[in-house]
Specification:
With 477 residues, the protein is mostly beta strands. The protein is 6% helix and 44% strand. It is globular and about 55 Å long. The N terminus is likely disordered. Bound molecules: fe (ii) ion. Fe (ii) ion binds next to strand 22.
Amino acid sequence: MLLPDPTDAPPASASFERRPPFRLGTEEPLDVPAMLEGALPGWLEGALVRTCPAVLHTDTWRAEHWFDGLGMLYAFRVAGPEAVRYQQRLLESKVAASYREGPYKPAGFATPLARSLLRRVFEPIPEITDNANVNVIPMGDELVAMTESTRQLAVDPATLRVKGEVAYGDDLGAVVMSAHPHLDVARGAVVNVASRLGSKSALLVYEHGLRERSRRIVGEWRSPRLPYVHSFGLSARRAVLVGHPLTVNPLSLLWSNRGFIDHFRWRASDGTRLVVVDRGSGAVREHATDALFVFHVAHAYDDGDDTVLDVVAYDDASIVDALRRPALAARVPDLTPRPLRLRIGAHGVTREPLGDVGFEFPVVHYKRVSGKPHRLIWGTALEGAGELWRSTIVRLDTATRRTTTFSEPGWVFGEPVFVAEPSAEREGQGVLLAVGTHHDQKRSAMLVLDAESLAVHAWATVHTEIPLGFHGSFVRG
Ligand SMILES: [Fe+2]
């Protein structure tokens, strides 16, 4: 990754946050009725709660990468078959206060931090962000907002106010946790991967009970250079980490003012190491395959002694640079990584394309297929067309390789969240909830699609602009 030169600041016209889908309608909290068109399924009760990068500059600070935008929590609340309310609130993080008031600004993903030489000497590892703009997940009785950090925030589901930092009562130390923990439905456990940065650098797979906050190490993979790990796969017996060749020597983080990802380098000739951790014994095995880059694992399952890992894969890590401020000001890139099945077994790794239609933000019928074979994956393709994205919601049947798609001209949608019908008898029986923003009408909406046919059930529309974000959850009411 190249370090942006702070003296080479883009002109004001390069403010990508001035246009949808990055633009925020208002920084003020909102709690307003949405206009409902169509019919909601009678069984759908609860709230779609999401987080997104929303504030991309303040008077004293500017995000140099989309991922560094200050977070906003928002919810579409289904209150009966004919009523949806929209609620939003800027994330009340310590980092947000620091960015507004200065002068000390903790480290971001790819935004250099402002820190004096003296402070660097006495605090070699900078304070790590609590800007939880990547995901929101219920963990037991807590609704937890998270980013790739040592810090996670507990959120009041009714008000979207931050209640405090999640307190882990263990001695794992300072570990950077992924924002894609798995919920092991069968065992009632949270399983996640963390990076331990320091002289004994390692990727750790840890777990804890849904209502516990004491982490137990399941397995540990030590390496002098650690890959950037955004998500991972969990089967019934194994955890699978994608060791793609975007790697860091963790010692380079010491005394540095650069953004987190700016310490990582793409080393294609290293190839990719798929790291399989046995959840029972903690035994770790590495399997080599060619270089690829993965933000999102779609699913994993055991097939006899083999492990199957479905991912959406880019050829390389250039997508990280394509989402920096100067690049986004010029054009938006394709977010269309290809769905790929990796089969890991005694004979090595085989690769099998799962179709020709690339998409991001893969989701599955999680509660039903957790740890088991699956058939369906949904996601959203974002194709760059100059300054605009064209979005397509995709349903992929991995058995037939057939895709079904939905798009609506002028609308840019993000991740489709799958919500199963409570009485579902088959995989995929339920709806998709996708939030989108219109290119030029200052409108946003939660779209409700039938998850099997992608037919429209309903639109819940509000007259504001919700910035495109990453992930969220449906919290049943
Ligand atoms: Fe993600």
